[in-house]
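Supplementary material to the annual report.
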Amino acid sequence: MATNLSTPPLSPYLSSHNHHHHCPLRLPANNKRCTISSKRAPAPPSAVAGEQHSPSLAEQLKPLSTTTLSDQPNEAQLLSKPKSTWVNPTKSKPSVLSLQRHKRSSPYSHNPQIKDLRNFAKKLNDCEESAFSDVIEKIPHPPTRENALLLLNSLRPWQKTLIFFDWVKAQNAFPMETIFYNVTMKSLRFGRQFQHIEALALEMVEKGIPLDNITYSTIITCAKRCNLFDKAVEWFETMYKTGLMPDEVTYSAVLDVYAKLGKVEEVMSLYERGRASGWKPDEIAFAVLAKMFGEAGDYDGIKYVLQEMKSLGIQPNLVVYNSLLEALGKAGKPGLARSLFEEMVESGVSPNEKTLTALIKIYGKARWARDALQLWERMRLNGWPVDFILYNTLLSMCADLGLVEEAEALFEDMRGSEKCRPDSWSYTAMLNIYGSGGNVDKAMVLFREMSEGGVQLNVMGCTCLIQCLGRAKRVDDLVSVFGIAVESGVRPDDRLCGCLLSVVSYCEGEDASKVLACLERANVALAAFVRVISGEESPSFDVVKEELKRILSSTAVEARRPFCNCLIDICRNRGRHERAHELLYLGTLYGLYPGLHTKTEEEWRLNVRSLSVGAAQTALEEWMGTLARIVQRRESLPALFSANTGSGNHKFSQGLGGAFASHVEKLAAPFTESEGKPGLFTATREDLVSWLQSRAPPSAATTAFTN
DNA sequence: ATCGGTGATG
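Predicted assembly:
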């Protein structure tokens, strides 16, 4: 068996007895990433739609589905764990149902009573819910099948639909059919009433009313919207048990369920199973796949989607393009996103707001200022649609690229507009721009404007503002902003704590105490730890280790390294160098600094790009201590040593390189910054060894921990 | 007007 699926609870649809015929995928069991071979088995000869001489598949399969359902399975039977093979394995391979959309011409079009009923529906929708039951009785025409359907279709909200449906059932004027349940469920789904939908589905089972693809896909998508993914999968399995084949809609709905659960392997297996049984995936299925691979950052997966569409002769539509562009951005391929966008426009598909939002975001993250600004220009020239999310994304892009004037112009545009008024996102983007550019006064003007205009400050805006006030050493303003923010409902998160912590690290005396008091309101344990490591009493290494571990494990992953960096800075700035070395060691131990040291035959490198100034200095000292011992022991060394601080692509990035350079200078270490490679400091073995030998033997601080 | 897919921050 070629399948190699690591997660057992697969839908039975995924594990047919003849699965091994169609598995061009190689799915590493221990790897979430899905490796996709570039060749897939050719689609099997179509046993499906398009063959005019044979009966339609729906007809072929009808006996199977109706007999299974008319056996009136009870609830326990229906919901029991399905078997892992097809209901009837001796039958030839089951095929996908082809979709037959219902014609536009509605069954009501020849109904002469339609006008009356429309008015009546409006009356029902407008009346108080308490009066609803009484109003129903005034129905102008008898509730025939068609009349009832028309009304059921136009009722809202779900409470009324449900009451009306019960009323129709009570009239006993005609037998209830599947469509009545489907229409009612649609209204319930609109109100996210999964419990009610499930109850209706069970009622259908009980009464022997067949559930069809429309019923199942409505149930499944409702569960999905209610985030009840297990329920969605469960009902898909139930569908399998009855022997009903999924149609295109059900396929894409279920693929989306698995995709949203992050079950890439299941999605691909189901996709392959569907393909093997004659399903021709459409744009919607490909949009689902593209999004899934984007979420996984899986570029091979994205290529697979493009290739599949090509081989099936399907042109991407707008939504597919949007999903693919987004996915390419998440997979870190801005250049490919750009060329796909050009291809899209050339093929005659006009971008919408979502397309442009995706691209602007990609260009901003890639720091492609020229492309971003050109696209913005093109948007205006072509009259491409703009909405407030796109506006806010443009502002964030300006923040990423340091385009202050452009952002100000945009923000003014928004102020003057009717439908794109600046909201808390817009203000946050501006606070980010002024905050990272150090323009405290403008940031504070915005802050006051927000409270006057009733725009709520959010946690990110608060973080930007506090960062800015901290750098400007306006500690009293910082304390006041923090207080106002918390009182107005901002709940400090780990990033805000990291920001406060960094302000603590470069403040002294009274200022540091004030900021630490803010931090204490947000994170008691962290503030206490700061007091411990910088206070008079000197706790043991083991105590520090345990407490740091406790704090870091309850901290969001993206804030852990910043925490550790700041804590190291705090120690250094308060003359606790040994403790700084301990913290760097612990940070390395807990995996916060992967790839700090890289070694090749020719060169050993210290990578400090993601370290704070103090942490980088500590790491350099630690490394020099280690090398000194290696020299003492006369072990072999490579010809070249280097330390990389990175150059900081961001316009506002503070100069780690500069601080590192002055530290190197202070130590008189023989590192020099490379020509043309800012942030890369190199030293030859000869220079470094003679410098190390000229120094006093390594101190206790630098010998405490070795790598 | 009985079923499915796309966008936002440090």
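Residues 436-589 of chain A form a domain with the Serine Threonine Protein Phosphatase 5, Tetratricopeptide repeat fold (CATH 1.25.40).
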